Amino acid sequence: MNTVIHKAATRGNANHGWLNSYHTFSYANYNNPERMNFGLLRVLNDDSVQGGMGFGTHPHDNMEIISIPLEGDLEHKDSMGNTTVIKQGDVQAMSAGTGVTHSEYNKNTHKEVKFLQIWIFPNKKNVTPKYDQISLKDIAKENEFYQILSPNKDDQGVWIHQDAWFHLGQFTKETSETYQIKKKGNGVYAFILEGEATINDQPLSKRDGMGIWNTNGIQIKANPQAMILLMEVPMNR
């Protein structure tokens, strides 16, 4: 088994006033050769956007892009004709494929929107762009992990063009769980959104990240009020 730990305070930070972004992996002006990615997980940005501000229309191609709002409302528009708002309790997935443009703005003028921006390399290039968005309201479970993303469009959660599975756990009491790897050769990157947890005997706090690979499963002990995102991804293209 191999592990890597990224403590919250070691992340790259870019504060543009309207945007305060923490980068777990190299992104934009944050360039750390030792933190380029975790397997096919390329970007994990922890973004806070001031009221009424946002990302103007810009292009992407051949990338799977996942947005998970943590607070507030994020307005999305894209060249596929989608105009929608994603908010806490939603998950958005966009396959950029042959090329797409989109914008993301804070819907509200009086409070921040906070969200995770996640990029994963696809297993197919130049696919037709697609958009997927769901509310977690009907699938959320308390004190256990539940699936929010997979490679299968008929499975629970959003789906992307990659052998990746995301699970989210919100814990109100101390809970111990075992997560089993879905596909041989994959690794898991755990990101502590709130509270504290212990993964394979490693204590972790809010916004700490830990990657684990060359194993069949991981042991997780969540403290009360912890919120944890598990991102299982292939380790090699």
TrEMBL record:
Question: What residues does Fe cation bind to?
Answer: H58, H60, H102, E104
Which organism is this protein's natural source? Flavobacterium pygoscelis
Q: Which domain of life is it from?
A: Bacteria
- Residues of the Quercetin 2,3-dioxygenase C-terminal cupin domain: 148-233
In this chain the Pirin N-terminal domain maps to 13-120
Please report the name of this protein according to its UniProt entry: Pirin family protein
Q: Could you state a single Gene Ontology molecular function term?
A: metal ion binding
Q: Give the UniProt family note.
A: Belongs to the pirin family.
Gene3D superfamilies named among the record's database cross-references:
Jelly Rolls
For this chain's record, the cofactor binding note is: Binds 1 Fe cation per subunit.
**From which residue to which does any coiled coil extend?**
none
* A Pfam family the protein falls into: Pirin
Q: Which keywords does UniProt give here?
A: Iron, Metal-binding
> Which cofactor does this sequence's record say it needs?
Fe cation
